[in-house]
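Practice problem: predict the structure.
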Amino acid sequence: MADAKLTPKAIELLQQRVIAHVATVMRDGTPQVTPVWVDTDGEHVLVNTAEGRLKTRNVRRNPHVAISVVDPQDSYRGSLVVRGTVVEVTTQGAEAHIDKLSLKYNGRSYTHRPGEVRVILKIKPEKVSGGVTRS
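Answer:
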């Protein structure tokens, strides 16, 4: 797939307090879907998770993912679907990022669990569709 860009409306939606669903591929080829907090750097979709979680294991084996987000205020015009590839799994900045997300979603800092290693999944969009891609 060719790379696609997030539209300004898609970026705006990803910056809101909305839940996304990320689909990864299991070892046997079946899909696995998880609701997640979501963010963007303007180019990539960012998902913060922890080492050892199923989605982290899945993307290390097969980096192809899909993400679906729906704006609860406008479920038709406010929809976003991104198909893409996890181009980076990094611990760099992940602790600060989960704190930022927790403030966005919960209004307080994240409660860090002893021994938990946070990671950011950086997803490069290859196909972007949904209401936020239309003018």
